[in-house]
Structure formats: C-alpha cells, structure tokens
Write a structure and sequence with these properties.
645 residues, alpha+beta, four-stranded antiparallel beta sheet, 9 helices
Length: 645
C-alpha cells in the first residue's frame, strides 16, 4: 500500500470512529421519556442535553469521510478497468452501493434524531389529548452502527479501485518494450527528404509521446536545448520582409551597380523609414508606444506630496474648573447637557443652571420645590433654545431658555422619576424608573403617541441615532434594546429590533458613531466594566474591551476615529481610545470621585465632565476644529499654449 492510500485510509477510518463514538454518546445522552415532565395540561418541560451537538458531529464526520473517499477515487463511471468481470471489481461495486445506501440512512438517522431531541416546551396533540414526544431508543445507536459499516465498506472500495488502477497502468506500460516508437505515433521523414521547416514548441513534441516514452528521450545539453516558436504572421511586416529578401538577392546579382553615395543614401532612407531592422520574423505583438495626452508639467502640480499631519497634543489637565455644589451623585441620572447654541445646562439638586460658553456667564433657569424635585434629567432640543427637564415626581417640563419661560408640562408618561431624555426632532423620548419608554410629540395636546415596554427596571440611558430611525435604550436590568420606529409602530409596543444581554451590569453609557450609522458603543456599570461595540443592523457584538472600572459615559470624536469614556472607582479618569484598535491615547485625571456625566460642545472639540466631587471640568481633549481651506484652482493643462482668438 502506497503512502497516499495509507493516509486516506487512516483519515477516513478516524472520521468513522469519531462518527460512531459521537453517535453512541448521543444515544446515551438523549432525552428519555422519564425525563420529560408535564408543566401543565398543554406544555411539556424538556431537559437540556448534549445529544444535539453529538449527533450533529457524528453526521458531519460521516459526510466528510465519504467526501474524502469519493474525491480520492474519482467518478466510478469514468474508471478504466482492464478486466470488468473480475470478482474483486464486482465486490468493490457492491461495497460502493451498500456504503452509499448505509451512509444515507445513517446520516438521516443522526440528523433527524438530533433535531427531534432538541425540543423545549413543545407539546403534541393526538386525539384531543396532549402528549410529550421523546426520541425512541436506538435511533442514534443505529446511525452509529451504520456509519461505521459505511466507512469500512468505503475504505474497502477505495483500496480495490486503487489496486485496479495500478494493474491497469502496468498493463499499458508493459505494451512498450525498449526505446521504440509507440503505436499511433507520427513517423518523421528521413533527413534527405526536402520539406519546409516547421516551428513547433518543444512541449508539443513531448506531449506526443506515449505514457512511458519520455524516459527514453535523450535530452541535449542545457546550452543546446532551446525552445522553438511559431511566428505570428499578423505581427510581421510582409512588405519589409519581401524587400529584404529581394534587395539582398539583387545586390548579389549586381554588385557593381551600387556606389558609396547610393549606399549612404540607402542607409539614411532606411533610418528615416525604420527599415534598418535585421529581424524578419515576429513572435509577438509589440506594445504600442505611450501617448502623452497632457503636458508633463500638468501632473507635476497635481501629484505633490502632502505634508504629514502633525500629531495632536492632548492636554493632561482641565482647561477650566467650575464649582457644582449639591450635584446629585446618582449613576442612573442624566444631569448635564450642552446645547447647539453653545449653552451648557446642569442640574444641581432642585435648580437648573445655564452657563453660556461664549461669554462665560451663568444664569439660573428655575428652582423647583421639594414636592416636584429634585431634577433627574436635562436635555436640550435640537434648536438649542428649548430644554426638557425631567423631575422626580414623574413630570417633564419644557422651557424656553431665551425667555426663561415654562411652555408646558408633560404628565402621565411615567409613574416615578424620569431619569433619561432624548430628542428626535419634535419627538421627546422619556425613560423612567418604571421601565417604560414613551415617545411624546410636543407639538400636539395629546403628546403621548407611542410606548416601548422591554425593560424590567429603571431606564437610565437613551440615545437616538443620527438618522432618527433607531433608538438605543439601556437599563438597570443589564439589558440593551435597539428599537426601530418602523418595526415598533407596525407591531406591538414590546417588539424591539434587538435585545442584547451581553452586559452584566446596568447599561447607561450609550453613543452612536458619527462616521458609521449602524455602529453603537455601550458601557456597563461596576459589575461589567466593559465597552462593547454593536452592529445595530444585525445585533452582532463587534468588540468588547474591559476598561477595569465602571463606565459612566461615552462620547465619540466628531473629527477623528476616537472614543472618550468616563469612569468611576478607582482612578475616576477620562480615557481616550483610538478606534477600532482601542489603544489608549490618553488618560485624563483630576476628579476625585466618579465622573458621572459628560457633554460635548457643538464644535465637537471641548468636553465638559461633572463628577460626584461637585466640580465641573472642561477638557480640550478633541483638539481645535480645523478651518476649511478653499480648494486650490487646478491649473489648465494647456495654459502654456497660444490660444486662437
């Protein structure tokens, strides 16, 4: 037995043993009838077993073994067997048929048994009575026995076919004795016969020999073993070839007719007409000469190397620090927001303050009494003038910051405090401690038009995507939901697009990527400490990074592929990450308590952070915004040429 045959037999045999072993293991771990319990009259409770994976592994191993056998032997219909009536060949055919028949039965038994065994809370009704179904004994075992028999028969078929092919090759090889010309070969004429030369590639001659004739060809030395090529007539200049042949013959017939001046004239004429070539035959087409469509100086100005972008300096200390007395140290609230009019809003206990970043002035918007306060969330509307304020008594108030005037109060949304707010044009989305998410149209009297129910505990994070089509919500129940407006509006209010359960702590920090619409970053609490990235179209988790501390807030850089996160114990730091490598670019320290809230300036460069140490710090972490430079005018390609007026 050759090395190849031994290797194929070993691999196929090993796969057969694996298939049989996993089949018997699936038989041992299948769900028995005694293990199924009736929960009620119409529901059955099934235990979880490993029979599904074992049965699937057995079926796949068997299929791979048969694929290897059939690829190694080839098509049975195309085999060339010298003695079709041989008893061994008849036995091989029988083994082939029985092997395939047993393979099909074993494959179906293993897959069907695995599928039927994987039932959970499923019942069947027969004659108006409910019965629990369990896989009958012997299904997996029968599949295992048949798979082992199928593999053994397949190995015997492979060995028989391989030995028959060897005998076939030996039979044809013995037909040629010695260095003679094989039957059916063309007879070459003798050297004394006149015949036009034929240019044939050497490989063509080698392919004309019989299967064992190559070993008798006496190859010449490497210097003399040259290739021969067939000329390409379409690439030949027939007129030039005719001229070269006739002129050389005329020159030999009339040597006195040529003079030195005539020869000089002929040479100049040949150079001018490209007639001074010495080769007549052409073996391939020459590439056409490149044509310059534009002047060379046109591209010189367009392909100048751009200067390398300098590395941005990230200050390690805060640019400004403000006092924030009575700031509530609560992880589940959202008390800081920076509006599009460059005004920062912060809630300190029962009072909402506004800080104008352009002038540095601070003003008090409103102070609420103890029955309605404290303030639990603030959020600016997209216009930068109106602000929504969530209160501890489940109300949400809308204020005009320019006129310092209350516009309306939204009641009936929640049964307890409103800890998170998010705007989507004229829609204000609120999340409460009752686990409900309510969409409010602030333009109409009956403002509540949609409610999402998916969280079992307080909703502490809400973010709309830039397109306004998808909403991300995080809760104290460790759940992250993706809601799609089209899905939720057309179906029930509990029909979320994705329900993501990978976090092991409360999910408050949420941030949609500004340069990839379906990318969402989420951060977990102290028991999770991870930043996870999600594809909201498929619900797949793209990456997860353990930060080592509680993730309180997340912000994307609007100008670069960077992500900023704020953390709690032990360092209470802000960390700048490079996306997608998630390499730490900088760690900003200064707060002495967990950094609960972050807000980004309208230009996307400055970040404000508020912590439990009752300080508000401003960080120039995202750099200075780049001023758009006017694009240089491209020089005209033919400006140096005179124009016809």
């Amino acid at each position: 037995m050759e090395r190849k045959e031994l290797l194929v037999c070993c691999v196929v045999g090993l796969l057969g043993l694996v298939s049989a072993a996993t089949g018997f293991a699936a038989e041992a771990t299948r769900i028995k009838g005694s293990q199924v319990q009736f929960v009620n009259a119409t529901q059955c409770e099934y235990p979880r077993t490993a029979a599904l994976g074992l049965g699937f592994t057995a079926a796949v191993s068997l299929m791979v073994a048969h694929i290897i056998i059939n690829v190694s032997t080839g098509c049975i219909c195309c085999k060339r067997i010298p003695q079709p009536s041989s008893s061994n060949w008849t036995i091989a055919l029988i083994c082939f048929v029985v092997s395939w028949f047993s393979f099909v039965i074993a494959f179906l038994l293993l897959l069907t048994g695995s599928a039927l065994n994987n039932q959970h809370s499923v019942e069947s009704m027969y004659f108006v009575s409910y019965n629990c179904y369990a896989v009958k004994p012997g299904v997996f075992a029968g599949g295992a026995v048949l798979s082992l028999a199928s593999v053994i028969l397949g190995i015997f078929y492979y060995i028989t076919v391989s030995s028959a092919e060897k005998n076939n090759d030996n039979l044809y090889g013995n037909a040629v004795q010695g260095p003679a010309i094989a039957m059916g070969q063309p007879q070459f004429p003798a050297h004394n016969q006149t015949q036009e030369p034929v240019f044939v590639h050497e490989d063509t001659y080698m392919r004309r020999q019989g299967p064992l004739q190559e070993q008798f060809i006496q190859r010449k030395s490497s210097r003399e073993n040259l290739d021969r090529f067939i000329p390409n007539r379409s690439a030949m200049d027939m007129g030039y070839a005719q001229s070269m042949l006739t002129d050389s013959r005329k020159g030999k017939e009339n040597p006195a007719a040529s003079s030195p001046s005539r020869e000089a004239y002929q040479r100049k004429l040949a150079e001018a007409l490209n007639m001074n070539r010495t080769r007549i035959l052409a073996f391939k087409n020459k590439p056409p000469a490149p044509v310059d469509l534009y002047p060379k100086d046109f591209f010189s100005s367009q392909t100048q190397d751009k200067p390398a972008k300098p590395r941005r300096h990230i200050p390690q200390t805060s640019e400004r620090t403000l006092d924030a007395p009575d700031l509530v140290d609560d992880y589940y609230l959202n008390l800081l927001d920076w509006g599009s009019a460059n005004v920062l809003a912060i809630a300190l206990a029962n009072t909402v303050y506004l800080w104008d970043a352009s002038t540095g002035s601070t003003s008090e918007l409103e102070t609420f009494d103890d029955e309605t306060g404290p303030v639990t969330s603030v959020s600016w509307a997209p216009d930068g003038r109106h602000i929504a304020i969530g209160l501890n008594n489940s109300e949400v108030q809308l204020w005009d910051s320019t006129a310092t005037k209350q516009l309306r109060t939204l009641r009936g949304c929640h049964g307890s405090r409103v800890g998170s707010l998010a705007w989507n044009n004229n829609i204000l989305t609120t999340g409460g401690m009752d686990g409900c998410i309510v969409n409010n149209d602030v333009r109409v009297r009956s403002h509540i038009f949609e409610t999402y129910r998916g969280h079992e505990q307080e909703v502490c994070g809400l973010k709309w995507s830039a397109s306004g089509q998808q909403l991300a919500s995080g809760g104290n129940d460790n759940l992250l939901h993706i809601w799609d407006r089209s899905v939720a509006s057309s179906q029930s209010s509990t029909q979320w697009l994705h329900r993501l359960e990978d976090h092991t702590a409360a999910v408050k920090a949420l941030a949609w990527c500004p340069f990839q619409s379906n990318l969402l970053a989420s951060g977990g609490g102290g028991g999770d400490r991870c930043i996870k990235f999600w594809n909201t179209h498929t619900g797949a988790c793209l990456n997860s990074v353990d930060t080592g501390s509680q993730v309180c807030s997340l912000l994307w850089n609007k100008n670069e592929r960077e992500l900023l996160s704020s953390h709690g114990f032990t360092q209470n730091q802000l960390t700048l990450w490079k996306y997608p490598s998630m390499v730490k670019m900088a760690e900003l320290t200064g707060h002495t308590s967990r950094v609960l809230y972050m807000a980004q300036s309208p230009d996307g460069c400055t970040v404000a952070s508020a912590a439990g140490d009752e300080t508000l710090r401003f960080w120039n972490v995202f750099g200075v915004p780049e001023v758009a430079k006017p694009a240089p005018k491209a020089s005209e390609p033919f400006a140096h040429l005179n124009r016809i007026r």
